[in-house]
Amino acid sequence: MAWFKRKDKGIHTPTEEKKDTPKGLWYKTPSGKVIDTEELKENLYVSPEDGYHVRIGSKEYFELFFDNNEFTELNEKLTSKDPLKFEDTKKYPDRLKAVQKKTGLKDAVRTAVGKSAGKDLVVAAMDFAFIGGSMGSVVGEKIARAIDYAIKNEIPFLMISKSGGARMMEASLSLMQLVKTSAKLAQLADAKIPYISLCTDPTTGGTTASFAMLGDINIAEPNALIAFAGPRVVKDTTGKELPEGFQRSEFVLEHGFLDAIYERKDLKKQVNLYIDLIQNQPIRA
């Protein structure tokens, strides 16, 4: 057979004749379950065998929440500056350009307004692919402006958190966003406009210490890491073994920091149900 040649240490196919399997056809969950990626996409990126919720970004969440995926993006051109002239292995502006090119995103959050179950909804969704979903000045500013839009137009606000915490390249400027977003949410509450916070995997650091835990209703996806400092840091600091499932959404719910956990397929229905209840409106089918 001409398509292979025998060598001393086995059978070797000539390089020009090798048939590589295209990447991305299959996805393997942490429990070892394997699923076709097309099937995974059709199932909202949730493994049907073990219920594992694969991390998704703002694009997929907008498709999930907005009717017919129709929405108007808010402040989409805002980008970070480099007031601290920060440099580690790369200059901060170079890092920003590289990740913007790689992800097609301007920063770690996108904000938009559209119809959800037939009624207006403002959504802010974070993207972990953009420097770990870190919260810099642009993230805080876009969330603040989205809240302002919600107040001005009397529209409920949904925050979808997915973040590793503050952005070290912006140091104290990043930490200031905790105060800014919390203050804006206080104004939203004063205006009696519903705020639903959805925590996804992971929701950590400054996001957890501010807007992620300030919802009228705080909900999460299954098995999402929700914490200020992660399990490894807590274990190293305390020197103690941690309980099974420590800081996962089920653990957080059990200890009173969440109101409910919902599978991805139920999120749109449940978020709009809460909004109707808060506003004392007829429940949408």
Secondary structure layout plus pairing:
Layout: E1 5-7, E2 10-12, E3 26-28, E4 34-36, H1 37-42, H2 58-65, E5 71-74, H3 92-103, E6 109-116, E7 119-126, H4 137-153, E8 157-163, H5 171-190, E9 195-203, E10 217-220, H6 231-238, H7 249-254, E11 260-261, H8 267-278
Parallel strand pairs: 7-8, 8-9, 9-10, 10-11
Antiparallel strand pairs: 1-2, 3-4, 5-6, 6-7
Helix pairs in contact: 4-5
Region (Disordered): 1-23
GO cellular component, one term: acetyl-CoA carboxylase complex
Subcellular location: Cytoplasm
Shape: globular
Chain-averaged pLDDT: 91
| Low-confidence parts | 1-7, 11-22
**Count of beta strands:** 11
- Spatial extent as radius of gyration: 22 Å
Question: How do the strands of the widest beta sheet line up side by side?
Answer: 5-6-7-8-9-10-11
Structural class from helices and strands? Answer: alpha/beta
* Strand residue content: 15-25%
Distance N to C terminus = 64 Å
At the fourth CATH level, what is the homologous superfamily of the largest domain? 2-enoyl-CoA Hydratase, Chain A, domain 1
CATH class of the largest domain: Alpha Beta
**Main sheet: strands, sense, barrel:** 7 strands, mixed
Count every helix, treating DSSP H or I runs of 4 or more residues as helices.
8
